Amino acid sequence: MPVTHFRACHLCEAICGLAIETEGDRILSIKGDAQDPFSRGHICPKAIALQDIQNDPQRLRMPVKKVGDAWEQIGWEEAFDLIAERLAGIQAEHGRNSVGVYMGNPNVHNYGSMTHGNYFLGQLRTRQRYSATSVDQLPHHLISLWMYGHMLAIPIPDIDHTDFFLMLGANPMASNGSIMTVPDVGKRIKALKARGGKLVVVDPRRSETAEQASEHLFIQPGTDAALLLALLNTLFEEGLGKTSPALQATVGMEEVKAAVAAFTAEAMAEHCGIDARQIRQLARDFAAAQSAVCYGRMGVSVQRYGTLCQWLIQIINLVTGNLDQPGGALCTEPAFDVVSGKPGHFDQWRSRVSNLPEFNGELPVAALAEEIFTPGEGQIRALVTSAGNPVLSTPNGRQLDRALDSLEFMVSVDLYINETTRHADIILPPTSSLEHDHYDITFNTFAVRNVTRINQPILSKPEGALHDWEIFVGLGRAFARVTGQEARATMPPAQMIDAGLRSGPYGDRLSLEVLEQNPHGIDLGPLKPNLLSRLRTDSGQIECAPQTMLEDLQRFATDIDQLRPREGELRLIGRRHVRSNNSWMHNYQRLVKGKPRDQLLMHPDDLARRGLADGQQVVVRSRVGEVTVMVNASDEMLAGVVSLPHGWGHNRPGTSQDTATKHAGVSANDLTDECYLDPVTGNAALNGVTVEVVAA
């Protein structure tokens, strides 16, 4: 008999509720859960493809070991012992920092990896740790650490109640939200406009979200700091600020006001490409709205002034009285409260080659290849990767590809033999999404409403398979055995969640048992002001003027003329699509079928100037490499800007993803530059890279 199960999709940050009908271990249908109070029946194409992931014959089910050019299946205990012996041996000979770690984006989508990854990785005691954070969101976390005292205390747009939403470098219609868990964002935007509100999108491309906006402003890539400085300067200069409890709990605002005094709208207009009168009117409209919120995501984080941008966004919300206010920027109060944990740290050590700072125990991934290639104490000789494909997702992927090939040993926790894991000696595949339980630790923390739910497995765990947390426990116990340590006691992730729920802000009414009785999830109410009670700064107040940001303003002032493209130059930006999630959604026919999505988009005038035609093959070159790709004429692009989606480039030998290979595309990160980054954090600057486009 068919059975209907309810759980959330955790392939992206929106965590939409699903109704999945099964018969035995066969999936009959996947639909949106109309009873989910958060997603309200919304579903996107990725969720439908969960069955493709489950049924993919190329998904690994058991550990495999590389023997010559072939892969052989081995048992779990044999794999654990081999890995522990090799890693321990390399560390014994070359020091603990000779083993590196890379954690990919999907780890935060599987709570077992989050709760138990360090059971093994912590035993390595290596400073050579990396993750997708430094090609994605590091500026957000650092600014929250500096201003609010915790790296996860990130205020989220109260989209359901705001009157004015200023959005920079974000495309939630394609991404389903990012550091803003917002399922059904299309209806939420329509509701905003229906109640008389306004959405203004700032982007070098007229994106899917810009198409839905009240107003779209084109901006030169990498110049968002100029616009944000001009807006903040106008707010100060014209006395447009509003008081609020948050503003009254600040230190350093006078320093900020003095530091931005020279960055007028008139001075910044030529750099960002937006008219000064338009900038000033935008500041006035934002300040005049009853409630407003400024939000910037990938497009402003992955540029040379990404940290500066995220700081300015917080200050704009603060000055206009919209920080920690309904309709403005509010911190979520999740049932499992990670903000009560360790706040994070910054710059306690640096990378040995480029002297880049660590953040919360991780170095910027832009340094990974050079740390493998460069001889000396601390050179990475072995690497552990988990659920990541940095060859396609980090800057100068070809260089990293070569670096991985030079390692003495590599192990990957992954479902596939992909562009990165093909270099591994052993691959350990966890169970699939539908075969294990899950709790969204991260995305409930950034949700636009306070919500919670536990997700039960839909399908039975296959015989001989291990969940991701069981893999890390197995590795940890084997490593402890080899190194003469005593393995720590542990418990399943669900028990940890239960303890966290009971000790959390709703502990008087929530537990794992209660969540199990509410399969559609529980709505805990709208976001409310709570930031002041959650501050973890030494002063107990909001720190408005981090010294590094004031110094970075001087770097910006010196560098500003370099931000504008020279005559004839083109600047590269990325692109999202609702059917993709980085590089790991391309082996499923239902997500890659239809019109190809991996072309270069280019303004018709830029094509004409170069004697190029719509639909022809072109070569795109940067300092680090080149790709050959079809170009499409598009008036949605700002002239002088070209767009190439990331996550493609499935044309390397030795992978086992046939559908992805048939739709290979090219990798945008064969063009991005590991030397082009935000020097404050070392976060990769993937947007604004200078490129040349010529006929193939």
UniProtKB/TrEMBL annotation:
Pfam families assigned: Molybdop_Fe4S4, Molybdopterin, Molydop_binding
SUPFAM superfamilies per record: Formate dehydrogenase/DMSO reductase, domains 1-3
Iron keyword on record: yes
Domain 4Fe-4S Mo/W bis-MGD-type: 1-58
Highest taxon, organism lineage: Bacteria
Keyword tags: Iron, Iron-sulfur, Metal-binding
Entry annotated with the keyword Iron-sulfur: yes
Classification via PROSITE patterns: 4FE4S_MOW_BIS_MGD (PS51669)
Family matches, as PANTHER family: ASSIMILATORY NITRATE REDUCTASE CATALYTIC SUBUNIT, TRIMETHYLAMINE-N-OXIDE REDUCTASE
Family, per entry: Belongs to the prokaryotic molybdopterin-containing oxidoreductase family.
Protein name stated in the entry: Oxidoreductase
